[in-house]
Design goal:
The termini are far apart. The chain folds into three domains: 130 residues, 3-Layer(aba) Sandwich (Rossmann fold), CATH 3.40.50.620; 121 residues, Serine Threonine Protein Phosphatase 5, Tetratricopeptide repeat (Alpha Horseshoe), CATH 1.25.40; 150 residues, DNA Cyclobutane Dipyrimidine Photolyase, subunit A, domain 3 (Orthogonal Bundle). Strand 1, helix 1 and strand 2 form a beta-alpha-beta unit. The protein has a five-stranded parallel sheet, sandwiched between helices. By secondary structure, the chain is mainly alpha-helical.
Length: 479
């Protein structure tokens, strides 16, 4: 067979569309060998005693890999699946299938880039090149109007210059006919139990939507949000919502897993604008994509400083003496602040939380409870279905005041926020049914209820639990 044999190493790029490593491998004209490795290091405990990957994201990952395999099977091939370290598995496959080159998309966080280095070193011993591509951002690194080490530390300055001087490249089309080696030993898709998880017993129907991994589902969500429901039309005005599928795009889980590329979303925005015109809502959605880029490039600029308590500002936030106790209350949704607890129950049950919720629970943990912000970031790493290192740790550093927030001290008044964004208490009633009978004027501060009202059975189970602690309430926030 003419052409080179290229091994395409999939990681957080689980798609056929807009995938340069796949397109380029097919263009070379030889066989392609698609490979996905379930790296056991991604399921280990962190130094904060949290799991690097929790049950909900593990399920989403398995669904995404299964969908990618189906795409290759529809093209007459398959996806090789292995459990193990890529630096051990890939050289074995290279030797077995007489591979000429290995392609992969470059990552930015230290653990992921460290694995790339291990693979590169192992392949180098076989005189095989690991070729790096850039495929996780809206803007290509080479198209930025400044080198990485001089990217502004304030998002607004970054945004203005990028919007003025840079452009988003076109998407890569799905490759045409693909050639695969015969008799590939593909391996079985693992099950959740292989990573120590039990299959979830039920789906919580209070979830904003039923997230299912894979490019097929991602493209369907793109179609639904832009064209079937036309929800993007009101994005700017609904994006701070708390209940339901369409107050925001919900693309983040698929983008984080690489089932959907930011560029695909960008060009869908442009296509929508051709039909409906530009608007504050389409621009607001674009800005969210740009924030994703920004945090990735900040990671390239500052590296592991985002994994340090003082961030790149150099001064860590204050911490309280009883932060172990308060962290347990926070993560188990038992702070006694209904708006905080409702958001944490949603996260723990579904793997998702609104943008408004994330900002509030993070600010409350760091600024009110005086808990190490890195504990919260690590907990989100385990629980979030849409976790990606740059976005998660970048946002937590921002809230903690050690990252890209230009304001010296940003502190959310969680009671005011609750009243602004859940004025009738509908969100709280959804996630804390014990408070369902409380009226909207009292639901955000139930510790003010009379003894008679507190005695009601369901209400009592929340208010009189040993960990209910209304004295934790601090309302000095400025937002």
């Amino acid at each position: 067979m003419s052409g080179k044999t290229i091994l395409v190493w999939f990681r957080k790029d689980l798609r056929i569309h807009d995938n340069e490593i796949l397109t380029e491998a097919v263009r070379k004209g030889g066989s392609i060998i698609p490979v996905y490795c379930f790296d056991p290091r991604q399921f280990e405990l962190t130094s904060f005693n949290t799991s690097k990957t929790g049950l909900i994201r593990a399920k989403f990952l398995l669904e995404s890999v299964a969908d990618l395999r189906n795409s290759f099977r529809a093209a007459g091939g398959d996806l090789i699946i292995r459990i193990g370290k890529p630096e051990s598995i890939l050289p074995e496959l290279v030797a077995k299938y007489k591979v000429h080159e290995v392609y992969h998309h470059r990552e930015v966080a230290s653990e992921e880039t460290g694995v790339s280095t291990l693979v590169e070193n192992a392949l180098w011993k076989l005189k095989i090149n690991l070729k790096h591509f850039i495929g996780h951002t809206l803007y290509h690194k080479e198209d930025l109007p400044f080198p990485i080490n001089t990217i502004p530390d304030v998002f607004t300055n970054f945004r203005k210059k990028v919007e003025r001087d840079s452009s988003v490249r076109s998407c890569f089309k799905a490759p045409g006919a693909m050639k695969f080696p015969e008799n590939m030993e593909t391996g079985a898709l693992p099950e959740l139990s292989d990573f120590g998880f039990a299959e979830p017993e039920f789906f919580d129907d209070r979830s904003v939507m039923k997230f299912k991994g894979g490019e097929t589902e991602a493209l369907q969500r793109l179609q639904d949000y832009f064209w079937n429901s036309n929800s993007v039309k009101t994005y700017k005005y609904t994006r701070n919502g708390l209940i339901g599928a369409d107050y925001s795009s919900k693309f983040s889980a698929w983008i984080a897993m690489g089932c959907l590329s930011p560029r695909e979303v960008y060009w869908e925005i442009k296509k929508y604008e051709q039909v409906h015109g530009t608007s504050d809502s389409t621009y607001s959605l674009f800005l969210e994509l740009l924030w994703r880029d920004y945090f990735r490039y900040m990671f390239k600029k500052y590296g592991n400083k985002f994994f340090q308590k003082a961030g790149f500002k150099g001064v860590a936030p204050d911490e309280g003496e009883n932060q172990d106790e308060f962290f347990e209350l926070w993560k188990n949704a038992k702070t006694g602040i209904p708006f905080i607890d409702a958001n944490m129950r949603e996260l723990n049950s579904t793997g998702f939380m609104s943008n408004r919720g994330r900002q509030n629970v993070a600010s409350f943990l760091v600024k009110d409870l005086k808990v190490n912000w890195m504990w919260g970031a690590a907990y989100f790493e385990e629980k979030l279905i849409d976790y990606c290192p740059a976005n998660n740790w970048g946002n937590w550093a921002y809230i903690a005041g050690v990252g890209n927030d230009p304001r010296e001290y940003r502190h959310f008044n969680v009671l005011k926020q609750a009243m602004d964004y859940d004025p009738q208490g509908d969100y709280i009633r959804l996630w804390i049914p014990e408070l369902a009978t409380i009226n909207s004027t009292q639901i955000h501060q139930p510790w003010k209820l009379s003894e008679t009202e507190r005695a009601k059975s369901q209400l009592k189970s929340y208010l009189d639990s040993p960990s209910y602690a209304p004295e934790l309430v601090v309302v000095k926030g400025n937002k």
